[in-house]
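Two proteins follow. First one:
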Amino acid sequence: MSAYFGSVETRTDPASYHWDGMKRLGRGDAPLFAFQLTMAGWGHFQLYGQPPRRVPPGTAFIAIMPSQHRYYLPADSPGWTFGWISIYHPYLLARMTRQVAATGPLVKVAPDSPLAAVAVRLMRGAIKKDFRDRFEVEQALFDFLVAFERGVHQTRGSSGEGQRLLDEVRSRVVASLPHTIDVNALAADYGMSRTHFSHFFRTRTGLTPARFAAEVRVREATRMLLDNRTPLKQIAEACGFSNANYFCKVFRRFQHLSPMSYRRAVR
């Protein structure tokens, strides 16, 4: 309760599910924020003085508490299945509050996105208590914040230069496999120095080119893991990793699971 808590729920009775952000906390309770992701059905999120907004599958909201909002199951909903986490960490709360003030409380969450992966990891950790220690918990919480901010940034710029740049670099990385393409080569494609290109890429996408290239390779590996017959060594080689051990290390950094754990989870 000093870091975060969470769960997965299904609600079907409108009379029993209604939360007001100004009445949620008791006297002496620490402020927090909640992230709630719809998995099936839908509910409403509403800021005071504004119309309610439907929260369908693949959409999440951030509720800062205390703040002037409410969320509830309306009478015409068939039900609402969702996963949620509530985070107390003061630094994360302050940063998330600024983010929500700038971009709003609702966000789309793609099923295969880093945000979905780390949110589900935190939900599972709250239920199963399977984090190794408090340091792993805090790492996951910070990963969640960064994934959220990145997802919002990418969504806002999805029709602009940033998205086009991501698409171009993604295609270049995939086309180069099983060889890796370094930042110098990417910079040369754009007629820039490594330093200039890195700054250019980050200001338009919110990412570093090296990390994005690694993420693309992990995504390719994720697709290959769906085939249970492909050995990890072969996947590592096909996706430009020097060996299976290094592949496992990088995969865990992005997906918060080992490749074998991921494969078992989606089997």
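Second one, unrelated to the first:
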Amino acid sequence: MILRRLSEAVGVSGDEGAIRDLIIPEIADHVTDLRIDPMGGITARQSGTGAEPRLKVMVCAHMDEVGFMVVGHSSEGRLRVTNVGGIDARILPGLRLRFGQDAVPGVVMWPPIHKGSNPKAIPLRELPIDIGAKDKAEAQGAVPLGTYGVFESEYRELGEKMLLGRAFDDRVGCALLIELLQAGPHAVDLLASFSVQEEIGLRGARIAANHLQPDIGIVLEGPPALDIPDPTQEPDDRNERNPSNQLGAGPSLTTMDRSMIADPRLLRFVVETAERHGIPYQMRGLRGGGTDAGAIHLSNAGVPSAVISVPCRYVHAPAAMLHRDDYDQTLALLRALTQELTQEVLTWDE
């Protein structure tokens, strides 16, 4: 499965080259106009089989993941790092990281428990990284300023249906887009975008959309699943399942987030297509966060956009978890959409 290789490769925002190198051989024989843009994103075209004029549908998944960058070295040989993308400081103490092409291992420092514990989250700037260096010079030689770091993690299959791995946000979207291209051509003209720097401001998707000039944008994502107990709730309420973004309940369809409101015509058609083909789905309501759709829908003169996601537990952490059925059902929905989307979908009701 291509998802394994994508998950195990490193591609922090601004340094997505290893992911790009995996994707291009997988799609090169299925597309035309393959291009690496000035920011490092991949765009390509797959001409459709439908009657002219065909819809130009941009399908976008971002290659980058959250991570770390070295910004200093202490006299004791420890690293000072900053986050690249959103990372919850509560999960960091004691975690293993790795840095640079040599995968230099490190541990986020934390006082031993017998010295007392601090119940508050410690900011990343106050958490040095121990790489075993004896002094500043050794640390600088092993991991220079500007070196990227990621969580140490391993891809695994859990039972028959569950997959565990780093950076499913958004390597799951990249894997889906690769499989969609390999299954083509489709009725529509498929404009593929493997974007960069989504985690630090939806940057690459805007460049891609301005180049591709799509009629419609569909963004593939791996958003947080909300089907885990919330320790901030009262004990009696902790096991209540959130009504959206559950593993095993099918693709998640965004209605609104902080970056965009899904186009109502397009969202309605996605729902109708899922129901017509017997594909389960779930609606994701108003939540924090944003996706590349926030940049795409404001590009050019405006692009009607939607977000279709595979829910993942524990995103922006060492290992995320997804359900294989959700992945397969999302791919089935995408294949149906790219065969059935027409210009009439964009007609406003009188």
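SUMMARY FIELD: DSSP finds eight helices and 17 strands in the chain. Residues 324-340 form the longest helix (17 residues).
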